[in-house]
Design goal:
It comes from Psilocybe cubensis. This is Enoyl reductase (ER) domain-containing protein. The protein has 337 residues and is an alpha/beta fold. The chain has 10 helices and 16 strands. Strand 15, helix 10 and strand 16 form a beta-alpha-beta unit.
């Protein structure tokens, strides 16, 4: 048996309960969860009743911990490996429990210099950023991923605008954009985050509260080149409209929530819906460890929630109330009383 934070029913309440541990199947491992990060989608599942395949359900998408058991056919991971993974939206497979089964297709080992807490901030936000930039134009901007030496820097002297640069997704979009060579990397955010966003690769930070016309004016002061790429990591109705308005003809924007605005003639809109995005196996298995080790990607800042799994409920309330800025909330399931 183990402890888990259960959402007891659709639109229901969270409760810490004892449930059985699962055993890994073919191509799977059992992970002792040391750190589990929170995402806005977690409170949205409770509030709106989507994504999960049944109840009671264990939510949570971001897992970091130790392999304690391997399933049939697993040869590249072994007991004792420090790993992190993005969970799937199945009622028994969420991160908010002390042990979870995960597929090795979405699993990466943790470089020695990183802690469980640090890498737990990565999976969902990182996957969303990668998919939005590099997947095909139906669900991304369709640009070439920087997973080879030849592809790194490919988009030199090409501007990109990132709306919501201080969000978890936005911070990874900045880092990937830098690796792809985009310049300038123009970001909207609160002015208080300017220095930290410049440090991770932004070229220019513009106040997120400016009107669309003022934003366009500021972009025009930075570059005279057309804006063919916009990544909206907030994706509210107003930011989606802003994204459409600032794209040059022939350009494309990608949003991380369902599209609620229609693109203007000659402009294109793609959807990489956070919460529906699955890890890209080749990236997780073949490249992510190296990206971290080489410093291409830096994990988000984080805050540890008290009381293990029990502390997650208050953390989700803070996320819903928009009382979390430029950091991830992380729970440590093994500290649950």
């Amino acid at each position: 048996m183990q402890k888990a934070l259960l959402l007891n029913s659709k639109y229901g309440n969270f409760v810490v309960s004892d449930i059985p541990r699962e055993s890994p199947g073919v191509g799977e491992v059992l992970i002792k969860v040391q750190s589990a990060a929170l995402n806005p989608v977690d409170w949205k599942i409770q509030r709106f009743g989507y994504l999960i395949d049944g109840y009671p359900a264990v939510l949570g998408s971001d897992i970091a911990g130790d392999v304690v058991e391997v399933g049939e056919g697993v040869s590249d991971f072994q007991k004792g490996d420090r790993v992190f993974s993005q969970a799937v939206f199945k009622k028994t497979r969420g991160a908010f429990q002390q042990y979870v089964v995960a597929s090795t297709s979405s699993l990466s080992k943790i470089p020695p210099k990183f802690s469980y807490d640090e890498v737990s901030t990565l999976p969902m936000a990182l996957t969303t950023a990668f998919a939005g930039l590099y997947k095909d134009p139906d669900s991304g901007l369709g640009i070439t991923p920087p997973i080879t030496e030849e592809a790194r820097g490919k988009y030199a002297n090409t501007p990109i605008v990132i709306l919501g640069g201080s969000s978890s997704v936005g911070q990874y979009v900045i880092q990937f954009a830098k690796l792809s060579g985009f310049s300038p990397i123009i970001v909207t955010a609160s002015p208080s985050h300017t220095d930290s966003l410049l440090e991770i690769g932004a070229s220019n930070v513009i106040d997120r509260n400016l009107s669309t016309s003022s934003l366009s004016e500021e972009i025009g002061k930075i570059t005279s080149k057309p804006i063919h790429f916009v990544f909206d990591s907030i994706a509210l109705a107003e930011t989606q409209q802003t994204a459409i308005d600032i794209i040059s003809p022939g350009g494309r924007a990608v949003v991380v929530l369902p599209a609620v605005v229609a693109p203007a003639e000659g402009k294109y809109l793609s959807k990489t819906n956070a919460g529906h995005v699955h890890p890209i196996p080749t990236f997780y298995r073949e490249h992510l460890y190296g990206f971290l080790e080489k410093g291409f990607i830096t994990p988000n800042r984080f805050e540890i929630l008290p009381n293990g799994l029990a502390g997650i409920v208050e953390g989700l309330e803070r996320l819903e109330a928009n009382r979390v800025s430029r950091l991830k909330l992380v729970a440590r399931p093994q500290e649950t009383l």
